[in-house]
Amino acid sequence: MTQFIKTGSEKVFRDPVLNSIRVKDQVILELIGTSEFQRLRRIKQLGVAGAVFHGAEHSRFSHSLGVYEIARRFSDHLERFYPSQEPGDGLWDVNERLVLLCAALLHDVGHGPYSHTFEHIFNTDHEAYTQAIILSPSTEINQVLVQVAPDFPEKVASVIAKTYPNPQVVQLISSQIDADRMDYLLRDAYYSGATYGQFDLSRIIHVMRPYAGGIAFDEKGSYAIEDYVVSRYQMYVQVYFHPVSRSFEVLLQHLLERAKFVFDEGQKDSRVNTDFISPTLQPLFAGNLTLQQYVMLDDSLMLANISAWRYAEDAILADLAIRFIDRKPLKSIVITDESKKLLPPIKQLIDSAGFDTRYYTAENDSFDLPYDAYNPKDKKPRTQIELMQLDGSLTELSTQSALVEAMTGRIFGNARFFFPREMLVQHAVDDIMAPIYADFQRYVHSETLVDPLNAELKEE
Fold this sequence. Notes:
Distance between the termini: 80 Å
Radius of gyration: 25 Å
Helix content: 40-55%
InterPro entries: dGTPase-like, HD/PDEase_dom, HD_assoc_2, HD_domain
Organism: Weissella thailandensis
Number of helices: 22
Mean pLDDT: 91
Protein name: HD domain-containing protein
Number of strands: 11
Shape: globular
Strand order of the largest sheet: 3-4-7-8
């Protein structure tokens, strides 16, 4: 049985979102103090979104502490009201407390700089790195965890991998309503200045119920759960899928792609300079990064390199770096399956205006499901939200909420085409590209890609 390691007194972290984050376990304090966890201070939670929402400068460090705190409140509630009396009774096993708290704290420790854009370019997986950091004897995190028990790192890693045998623990960390989502919705809403992500956290915790297959919620709390689902939907529409934020993601992606292209050329041709990549980043670009080198990467290191690339010998790399650093995002228009047939001619116009379409254009789809019921045939089946009736029976949330039912299984979002902002310049003076700009603008109406011939017919 896992030994609980307690501190002599409670440590309290003041937090603007959750008010207080309370720690009594020495192992949690030691994990927070490790170099791998402290690195999360230097990785922004919302990546490039700070270029749109200027207050969104919060880190994955503060988010991870928040997830820990919400998981702690989950555990305290379940231990107080639903402690297991005998094996197999479906109630909360208090011995699961520490593995839950450690997994909550460490769930994002494997994130790299600029997170998801970074993963796409360099083919990394933050969950795989999270497990590697937890399991590797070379990390400070592993050295702290093995003090609890020799097999404790494996237990914590299995929660991240969703293979831990207790579904309650896994669901509290990763499901459609979990500590991770609850914290990032509240925290991102607070720092972005949005009000959409607010919901009644204390009420949701109050109606939480354990059962043998996982976690359910008292049917009396269905309105609080409904509010949470709607909040998540609104945050995705208004914040996470903001078109300018997506523009910066596209810009960063192409910037890193160009940097890697130039670096790879330098590996084949000694006449091409590769010194523009700092020594700390070179193993990443070379594709032979060790775990120890990976945990040295953060946003500040990446940003320092990008800032230096403003003066790179490669003109495209330098220009993309300037656009990223000086906040000159690409523009975008909404595209549909039908209007995509118009992309080849407008790409040709962009190319004629002097822009390499590989780096200055992109199609970007951002779609999500606000909520979905469990479907075992899906590639990644979602853990549905269960409501517990007075007799102990379970019903799926959308069967009790007309609002959630209307949202269930319905994908929202849009597809956009990104291009250089210069293409929208009107009345250009002394610019030989002005006729090309004017021709391009015939395809744009109300930020949507349209057929200019059909538009002209409608005007007639």
